[in-house]
Every structure is written in C-alpha cells, then in structure tokens.
Amino acid sequence: MDKEERKTINQGQEDEMEIHGYNLCRWKLVIVSLGVICTGGFLLLLLYWMPEWRVKATCIRTAVKDCEVVLLRTTDEFKMWFCAKIRFLPLESKPTLDTKSLVKISNGHAVHLTENLAEENRREMNKHSQTQSQQIRYFTHHSIKYFWNDTIHNFDFLKGLDEGVSCTSIYEKHSAGLTKGMHAYRKLLYGVNEIAVKVPSVFKLLIKEVLNPFYIFQLFSVILWSIDEYYYYALAIVIMSIVSIVSSLYSIRKQYVMLHDMVAAHSTVRVSVCRVNEEVEEIFSTDLVPGDVMVIPLNGTVMPCDAVLISGTCIVNESMLTGESVPVTKTNLPNPSVDVKGMGEELYSPETHKRHTLFCGTTVIQTRFYTGELVKAIVVRTGFSTSKGQLVRSILYPKPTDFKLYRDAYLFLLCLVAVAGIGFIYTIINSILNKEEVGEIIIKSLDIITITVPPALPAAMTAGIVYAQRRLKKVGIFCISPQRINICGQLNLVCFDKTGTLTEDGLDLWGIQRVENTRFLLPEESVCSEMLVKSQFVACMATCHSLTKIEGVLSGDPLDLKMFEAIGWILEEATEEETALHNRIMPTVVRPSKQLLPESTPARNQEMELFELPAIYEIGIVRQFPFSSALQRMSVVARVLGDKKMDAYMKGAPEVIASLCKPETVPVDFEKVLEDYTKQGFRVIALAHRKLESRLTWHKVQHISRDAIENNMDFMGLIIMQNKLKQETPAVLEDLHKANIRTVMVTGDNMLTAVSVARDCGMILPQDKVIIAEALPPKDGKVAKINWHYADSLTQCSDSSAIDSEAIPIKLVHDSLEDLQLTRYHFAMNGKSFSVILEHFQDLVPKLMLHGTVFARMAPDQKTQLVEALQNVDYFVGMCGDGANDCGALKRAHGGISLSELEASVASPFTSKTPSISCVPNLIREGRAALMTSFCVFKFMALYSIIQYFSVTLLYSILSNLGDFQFLFIDLAIILVVVFTMSLNPAWKDLVAQRPPSGLISGALLFSVLSQIIICIGFQSLGFFWVKQYKVWWDPYSDACNTTRSLCWNSSHLYNETELEKCKIQNYENTTVFFISSFQYLIVAIAFSKGKPFRQPCYKNYFFVISVIILYVFILFIMLHPVASVQQVLEIVCVPYQWRLHLLIIVLTNAFVSIMVEESVDRWGKCCLSWALSCRKKTPKAKYMYLAQELLVDPEWPPKPQTTTEAKASVKEKGSCQISTIA
C-alpha cells in the first residue's frame, strides 16, 4: 500500500503535488465532535486552519484508487496542504456510442483525445449497445478536474487536442467535426467552456476574514476584558478590528470583481460549428468542446477557446497575451499530406505552431477566405486549460511569497507565547498560595496572556503599511496587496519589460545608407523624393512587409509601418470578391502617391514593349515569405505592372542578408559601418534584391521554396532605425545601479533590439561583454546543447561565422581575482533557449541567473518561470511591465508594478497611473521606509509587552495590579498614539546602496531588543525594590500630599470588599511601577524611531514629536505636581516629594542609558558583527552571493567563445552537462 500512497500528480510541472488517499472514519468523527464541544469550538477552528490535521483527524488512510478524500501536498519549498472530495461523473451510454469506448474512458485509458480515441469512436459510432451506466471518479483542485486513470493508476487532468495529436491527424481525423452524440459526450467530460471567476459574497469573505487567527485572539481578549469590566480598551480594539476587516474585504472583493470583468468579455457568444454531415450548427461558446470545428465569422470575434486554423487566414490582435498591439496574421496549419513532403508525423503543439493557433481572449479582427471556403478552426483547449485560462489561474491561485519578516514575526510571537506561558503558570501558583478565588485566578492568569501577546499588534503593524500606501497613492502608485509594500523594501533585482516600459512604443526611421557600385553612399535622412521613387531600394521598402488594411487603416508591425510611411506610398488590397476568384493569391498592390511621380515616365527597361508602358507606376506583391525569427529575414516576390520579369526583395538582419548576397555586391567596409551604427544603439536592417528568371510564372512562384528565392541577391544598403528610450529610463536605471539593484530586461521583442536597448539605457555598459546563449533541444538522436557566442557588437550575435574571434578577449578568466572583477559580462538568450536550458541544463540555470541581463522573445509563462528561477537563487525580484503578457510574472514577483490600468493591473500588486519606470525607485524607497517602520513598531510592541508583563508580574507578587484606568492610559493614550504617529516618518529622498535587514531574527535587531529589555527590567526592579525599602520610613497607606486621606488608612474600612480591591491597587509600589513604565514606553519609542538612510529623521515627523512632548509633559507634571482628580481617576497615590525626585533621577538615567545603548548598537553593532563573521568565514546566506564566490575561482566560467555545452545523454541525472570546444 505504501507505493499506492506515494503518488504524484502533474509530475515535473510547476504545480507538482503528492497525493494521498483517505476514507471518512465514523469513530474519529465522533471523537472530533466531542473535542469540538469540549473546547468550545476551538478545535474546529484549528482543523479549519490546518487541512492536513483536518483530514488525518477525521479519516483513515487508504489506497488512492478507492479513496473518498484526497490530501494534496505541493512538492516545492512551501509544502502547502490542500484537500479535495472525490466526486462521481455518471456516464450513460447512448445508442450512438459504443459501451466499450465508454468503459475505456471510465477506466481512464484515454484521458486525452488522442487520434486512437477519435478513430475508435468513429468506428464504433453506429453500433447499437445495451443501456449501461459508468461512473468516473474525479476531484477538482484550483479549477482543474483530475480524473482517475486506470492505465497509470493515478489521477490525471483531462487534456484536449494540444498533446499527442499529429498535424496529419488534425486534418484526417478531426477536420470533419463531431456528431451531436459525440459532442454531448465530450461536453459531459470537459464541462462548460468558461473561465468562471465567481465573486464571493460579502458574507463568505467576512467569515473567511474573521476566522483569521489574529482576529480570533482579539475576540478572546475582548471577551476576557469585558468579564473583567475593562470595557474602554475592549471597545477601542473592536473598532480597530472592524475598520481593518472592512478595508480588507473591500480590497479583496474589488480584486475579484476586476478579474471577473476581465474574463467576462468572451464568456458567452454565439458561434457556428461544423458537424460531420457538413451541416453548420449555431451554439453558445460555452458548449464548445475539443474537437469541435468552429467557423470564424467574417467580421471577426473574440476567441472563446484555443483553436488551430485549418482553412483561411485571420488577422488577430494578441495584445491580451503578448502585450504588443500589433495585428498578427495567422495562416492555416500546413497539411503534411499536401503541402510539405517528408514532414512525417510531427505532433501539433500550440506553442510550436502558434502562427496557426488562435488563442482564447485574443481578438480576430478580420478573416480572409479563398474560393468560397469558410474560415475554420478546430477547438483544441477549452475553459481553464486555454492560454487565458492558465493566466487567470495564475492570478487566482498564486504561489505564496515567502518573506523572512513574516516568518520571523510568527517565531517572535511564539517566543511571546512561551513568555506568556511562564507568566500564566507563575500567576496560578502565586494566586493559589495566596488563597485567591478560582474565578479571580482564571481571569488573572488569562489576562497575563493578553498582556504578553498584545491584541493591538496587527493594527500597529498595519499602520506603517497604510501610511506608505497613502504616500504611494500621492505619487500615482495604487496598491491592491498592501503586505507587498514591506517586501518591496528588500528588492535587489528588477525585471523590466521593454516595449512601452523602457522605450516608447514604436521605432523611428533615422535614415538610410544605400550602396552603389559596391560602395556605401553618404547617409540620407529622407527617402521620400522624386529621385528615389523608382529605385529598387524604395521598391523593397514598399513591398517587403506584412502590412494589411483593417477597416481602411494600415496596420501591422510598427517597424514595417514606419518604413512604409517614410516612403509615402499607398497600399491597396483586393476586395473579398476578387480574393475569392484567385486561389490562395493575395494581389496586394503598392504605388507612390501622385505628387512623388515625375511628370514623364521614361521606360528604363530595355525589354519593355512601347504598348506595355503603364500610365501609372504600380507594384503587385505576388508571394510573401513572412518574417521568421529563426531565419532573421523576410522576403517577397513582386512585379512592376507591365514588367515581364518578377523581382525578389529581401530584408532582415544585416549579417544574414549579406551572407545571402553575391560577395562582390557587399561593400568592403560593411562590418565597420554596421559596427558604428550598432554601437550607437541603432537598429539596422539590410535590403537586397534580384531579378527573377522570366520562366518563373505567377503560378510557379506560388509553389516555389523559400531557399530558391533567397540566394544570389544584390546588396542594396541599410535602413537605420532608432528605438527611442523614454526620457527618464537611463536616469532611473542609474539610480537603481547606484543602490546595488540589478536590472534585467525581459521582453517579447527580438534579441537584437533588446541588446541594443540594454546598451543604450545603461543596463549593459559599453565595456561589458555580451555572451549569447543559443540552446538547441535534442534532435535526431543528438543531445541538447548550448552554443556560446560572444558579441562585441549587437548584430554579430546571430551568426557565429560572422564573429571576428581576434577582436574578442578569448580568456576572460585571469590568475588574479582583481583582474577578473574588472571584466563584467552579461548573458543574453531568447525564450526558446531559456526553455531548453530549464529542461536540460538545470545545473547551469543558477549560474545564468547570476549574470543574465537580456531575455528576448519570452512568452508569458516563460516570464513567470524566469522570475521563479531568479527567486530560487534568493533574489528579491521586482517586475515592471505594461501588458497582460506580464500578468503571471507581475503576480509571481515579490513586487510587481504594472504601467497599464488594463488586464495587468488585475494581477499586479501595484499599478502606476503614469506609464513611467520612475515609479520603481519610488516604490522601493517607500518599501524600505515601510519595512523599517515595521521593525520599529515590532520592536516597540515587543518592549511594550515585556514592560507591561514585568510590571504586572512585580505587582502580582504583592497581590497588587495595575488599575483599569492605568491600563487604559497606557494602552490608549501612550501605546496607540505612539504606534500610529511613529509610523508616519516619510521615506528618505534617495535610494542608498545599503538594504534594510530582511528579518527580525538578525544579530543587531535581537541585541537591540534584548538590551532594551534588560535595561527596562533593571530600572523597573530598582524602583520597585527601592520603594519597598522606603516604605519602612513611611506609612504605606498614607497620602503624602495631605490633601485627602487614603481609604486604606483607617483599619475599620478594610473589611469592605470594594475598598479592599482599591487598596490592592492604590499603593506606593503600584504608583512607582506605573510612572517608571509610562516613561519607559516613551523612551523606547524615541530610541527605536530610526531615520536615515531609509526614513526621514523622527524630528521631521511632527505628529510624533508633538505627541511625545505632550505625553512627557503630562506624566512629568502629574508625577512632580500631583493633581487630586487625576490621581483619583488613575488610581495612584501621592508619594513623598523626596521619592518623586528619586523617580525623576531613575527615569532620566533610564532614558540616557537606553538611547546611548541603542545608538551604540546602531553605530558599532554592524562593525562588530561583520568582524565576527569575517573571523568565522561564514558562507553567505543568499544562494546568489555564495554562487558568485564560487564562480570567481571557476576556470571554466564564463564559457569561452565558440564553445558548446552538451547535456550528457548517458547520465540520467537531470541537468548534467559537459563543455566541448568546437573545432
């Protein structure tokens, strides 16, 4: 049975979990029920907080296949527990379905729709079967259903057509559509196609919030105080708790409503689907299942699912997923049996074939069809399995953020509970020895717990965060997760999206540099001139693009758009009627505007016949080979109207274009000119052209391969584009670097642009080396490998043959560490390489995270994986982005800040009203200030607890206590006023290199708290025992002021219970302890109110200064000049004048010692600690720091130029690799 119990679901994935089976046990339920009654419901609360205990207390262990309840535990560092109830899905066989296929599914033999299942269903479809019902066991966790699978003897989630289905079978077995019976059956399994975000009712949220352990403790304290007739402070705590709960409920519900509105856009629309008999049926989008053939309407739609296009073309706005608002052209999936020979059984994958996949939530703007065909797409994923569904799940169920402060806070509370336990036992023993009543003993002993663990602690801790939130709001930063503000104070690495975050949204044309007679001409600013209008260079700019007209407006890639606008030409597309006549040919025509054309049009081409001379100059685009990031180029075949021969035009990365041109047409100084531009941060694109042979006809061109066109070209020159940085970007990044905060670029844009922008904005300094990691997955029996390319210039990274090895420092590892530190290097890679490295080179991931600066072509989930990889080496990661493609990363990062108020703001803890990265330093400064405030408040509240605990313990020893109004004065007038004003210090104006400590359990903080505890206990004890000595000389029950006589003076009154209670409080020991402790609260508040370098000095916090001065003056006044009415309310006695002076000396000495010790800890504590650590040679706690030390002495790191790192195929250990040099 052990093997049964140790099962894992989602193996190897991010949400991998162990699964254990349990069955409900009646006798355990009876025992738990009795326990709940005996503990007054407290056991029920404990089981509510701990799912693991709840299941183990009420169930017995059993095999997973027979269980009624599953207990799940994540395998990550958080080891979180979840439980889920097993449910049954009844499947009734119909005459249209075979029982065998149903049994097969119910037993779990086909958890996803492979072609075998589809084939079997089709084969068995018409057979009649006996009526029989089957049941499938399943459970739901985080919006995903897990069905029992008999084949693997485990639970597994239901997959669609996105796994294990070949491209061939997409056409052969799935393109016909589903029958109504098969559709109904799949609907039963897959459920409703919707991303359901239910907004919980206020009552549900309220119950969940109120059942927080802190609020339960507050409730216990309030009940206890009410029994003890301590109503005023109880009321104050109730009011604070209500305000806290209401504000928390408001922000949580607002988040749910925003997320619900975000996903509701495509929730229910009417769609047309094709059935097996070619009839088109209209259904609701919620009824779609994998395998349905959906008809994409002519006027576009918002996609309600993920679907693969099998006929026609769509123009799609994918900004919801990619953040780039550039329309993307999606073509139908190539049919291996028709289009491409030798493609074999290539498996379909939404990621690999994303140019043919329409993703959920994206907007289809326009469709194009040919010869009357419908534009069809096969549904591959529905509901939460879709790309948008996964995004919403990452927002709904984020991984918890581990922060040392909160872990230490719980440890600290446990220490206070232990102290309270000691006081609890002492109080009981002391009370029994003094023969007090049972009720009195219970109240006193429980009261010591509420004194030691202050119920006001959550409100006190929240105050600093609330103030920081308000200050952030003033600078245009809105926060929906206030607890993250503290974490932002620890950020030491910030990831930035590029487009719209670091740079302006588009590129600008800086100029062109043409080539004539194999020489570069001088750069030209304008291409819009009569002289160039008929040149091949302008013709290439006019035709070589992927632009299209949407509702009469030209749209497409911003780079193409800028180039086309620069020449001032006009683009005309064929109408739908014309398109339908031409089989798969898009006769798009471009022509210059009339003012650009010269008046006469002489025929330059000798071969043209006179009667063929056109009245106007037009170029038709015959065939387009779209831009490929792998090839780094695009090309078109075009023909000038009236010309017999066609032209091929090509544009792309300069070194790639140059390698495909005739060597004699490429200028000698090509590399030097290119390097000059790229070093200035320009984006450079090269153009090439050649005349095609006259034998190539219109129809032959439609079937010619790309390689046949893209060779033997004539090099025409360069286009120089400028990707303008936002004005504030370099200054902000410089501030972050000065503060020792690493910056990383993670973008969906291509590598060349990203590295260029990184250099331009100062993320990569001019002298720094860039190492390109090009990772290739295993293929044809070969293992995965990484090719390392060094790049001095931006453009040389894409082609290793173009690298001049002599210009690169081959050996970066030197004998002395000092020389090594001078050589800074950065890794750059694209999304594909990043995925391969994550999968096959696990041991290299931490090393690459240490110096990885540019991550290009990153998909949304890859951005999230990058944030997690950085967190795994102990970085505190911030993320700044502006698109929905950043949602997962914004949510996962310790501090995510969105520059958009759209989808990203739902996921992001912070949203900036101004789309500028200047919000990042502001957030970090406020985070640091809030973190330091939290430390100050925590230390103060700890001292408050210990001071009051010790005061009460001392007084309990003489059967005395603090009076109700004394407690009230301390708790309300001193503690709450001080706590809520000491948190008001604004953030320091500059970001400094020093970071605040991340946790409470650090040497300096502990020493600070312990030293203050010892000082306070020492001076309280001194006052308490000294006054007992003085009482020998005074009448202990007399009033030294002679204004009134104490009730305790006359022995005849001692039998009155009320008066006896007063005598227990009104004595010299009580008065002495009250005055000394009151001053101690104010002394430690001043000592702990730290200013520079994270907060403004406390003297600039006017509310705090005024509050402390008023309290000091008031307490000094009633101590040195007693006022009868105040004494009566506070239940203090008038002590002799001489003792008042002694009290003043004790208080002043206490203040001097406390402040001097705290200043010494601040000034010398760090030096002593660093000296102690250096003596011990302690390894750094943070993994990245330890790794940096290791890499300093690693001769094999960084990898040398033109080397390859290969994954070892023989060794099964994940991530093992070896480095081999390319010969």
From TrEMBL:
Domain P5B-type ATPase N-terminal: start-end pairs: 13-149
Family: Belongs to the cation transport ATPase (P-type) (TC 3.A.3) family. Type V subfamily.
Name the UniProt record assigns to this protein: Polyamine-transporting ATPase 13A3
Source species: Nannospalax galili
Keywords: ATP-binding, Endosome, Magnesium, Membrane, Metal-binding, Nucleotide-binding, Phosphoprotein, Translocase, Transmembrane, Transmembrane helix
Cation-transporting P-type ATPase N-terminal domain residues: 175-225
Any one GO molecular function term: P-type ion transporter activity
Coiled-coil segments: none
Bilayer topology annotation: Multi-pass membrane protein
